[in-house]
């Protein structure tokens, strides 16, 4: 089956991230007295952020009775406010290399482009607006718009429903973290493509068995084109 939809992650995959997200996460945790090293934060970046916060608290807080929904919500609110303030004002926000030309090339072939993210929708909207991507993508779904974020398949399935894509065999997922890859696998996507422009190196992505690993997002065009050629010949 030819690919009809490619779902891309945001920070680290399509949006430049010089560890802005990790830094904001650390600051949010520190606001409640938890000092987390950046190397402990980065592996959790693809997760829905309240879940990532809870995972960190379970490691760092010996008194489990303190790990309440209220504490998670306080930290997450600090994170969201920090990220919105940053993305609204920073001059650093930019697409990663070849992202926009990749979007254009895929859409020229009739392939739909969607974004999904571990961010909440309010942060995602600020990013899309700042980059002027409203007309470059066909759908956007954030982790707070579905029952379960990554690695569950809910976001991809919601995008498929919105865009009328019936089979996950017609979908490719592209992301820079473990949970991006597992999200694609759990959704049954034909391709679950890891990319090395974000939080994980090639060596760190390999154990999660992506169908492909790319160093440049433009390589996705070739993967999809090859898929279409194979479909045409069968």
UniProtKB/TrEMBL annotation:
<dbReference type="InterPro" id="IPR050155">
    <property type="entry name" value="HAD-like_hydrolase_sf"/>
</dbReference>
<dbReference type="InterPro" id="IPR036412">
    <property type="entry name" value="HAD-like_sf"/>
</dbReference>
<dbReference type="Pfam" id="PF00702">
    <property type="entry name" value="Hydrolase"/>
</dbReference>
<dbReference type="InterPro" id="IPR023198">
    <property type="entry name" value="PGP-like_dom2"/>
</dbReference>
<dbReference type="GO" id="GO:0005829">
    <property type="term" value="C:cytosol"/>
</dbReference>
<dbReference type="InterPro" id="IPR023214">
    <property type="entry name" value="HAD_sf"/>
</dbReference>
<dbReference type="GO" id="GO:0006281">
    <property type="term" value="P:DNA repair"/>
</dbReference>
<dbReference type="GO" id="GO:0008967">
    <property type="term" value="F:phosphoglycolate phosphatase activity"/>
</dbReference>
<protein>
    <submittedName>
        <fullName>HAD family hydrolase</fullName>
    </submittedName>
</protein>
<keyword id="KW-0378">Hydrolase</keyword>
């Amino acid at each position: 089956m030819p690919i009809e939809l490619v779902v891309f992650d945001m920070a680290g995959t399509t949006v430049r991230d010089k560890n802005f997200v990790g830094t904001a996460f650390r600051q949010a945790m520190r606001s409640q007295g938890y000092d987390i090293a950046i190397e402990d934060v980065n592996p959790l970046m693809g997760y829905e952020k309240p879940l990532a916060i809870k995972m960190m608290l379970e490691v760092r807080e010996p008194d489990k009775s303190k790990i309440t929904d209220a504490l998670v919500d306080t930290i997450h609110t600090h994170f969201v406010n920090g990220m919105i303030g940053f993305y609204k004002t920073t001059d650093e926000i930019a697409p990663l290399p070849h992202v926009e030309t990749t979007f254009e090339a895929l859409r020229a072939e009739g392939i739909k482009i969607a974004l999904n993210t571990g961010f909440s929708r309010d942060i995602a909207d600020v990013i899309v607006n700042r980059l002027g991507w409203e007309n470059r993508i066909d759908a956007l779904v954030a982790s707070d718009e579905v029952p379960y974020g990554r690695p569950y398949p809910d976001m991809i399935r919601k995008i498929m429903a919105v865009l009328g894509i019936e089979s996950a065999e017609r979908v490719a997922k592209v992301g820079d973290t473990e949970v991006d890859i597992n999200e694609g696998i759990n959704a049954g996507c034909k391709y679950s493509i890891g990319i090395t422009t974000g939080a994980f190196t090639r060596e760190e992505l390999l154990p999660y068995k992506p169908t492909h690993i790319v160093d440049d997002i433009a390589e996705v065009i070739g993967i999809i084109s090859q898929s279409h050629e194979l479909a045409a010949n069968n």
